[in-house]
Here is the input.
Amino acid sequence: MIPYNYIVVEGCIGAGKTTLSKMLAEDFNAELVLERFADNPFLPKFYKDPVHYAFPVEMTFLMDRYQQLKNLLSARDLFTEAVIGDYFIDKCIIFSKNNLLPDEYNLYKNVFDTISSFLPKPDMILYLYNDTQQLLQNIARRGREYEKDITAEYLQDIQESYLTYFRQHANMPILLVETAQMDFVANPADYQRIRQLTEQTYPVGIHRITF
Here is the structure.
């Protein structure tokens, strides 16, 4: 039994958050909420031409995430039913600040602030922290064509943006789990170590976890 009703697994691109979310949801018989990135028609265009497609890609993600969380989470009793998701709605702000021009970001943030206030926040965030070279290897291994031009610099910027955001908004337990030396897919012992983290309670704030 997990002590938190709504857990989010987060991480940079290629961190393995979707895989881990599926494993945890199956183990705990929890509702699984997965990001529908494949439904965003602007994403492949963004990776080829980020200047022109950053705003539509971010707006499309925002509206889709909002609708998904509103429909799936608001209809559930989060006080009694476990939910595990592979994204935190605030990643919209993290990515948009990194990708948008200042005037675009200001407009975007106004929209985000309005609609996100109606959505539930997770009780705990499990952030999978990995080095950029390992992230690039993971991205290459899954073989999505539109991700082949992602650079180490871009991944580093995104990861630093996550950490900065967490330091400024640590209003829930946030576990930063060092996964560079782990393989929770192939090694059951590594998975059990991470699973056990979700079965404990933590005070509000950032907790760096190494094994």
Q: What stands out?
A: The chain has a mean pLDDT of 92. The chain has one domain: 6-209. Residues 91 and 162 are 8 Å apart (CA to CA).
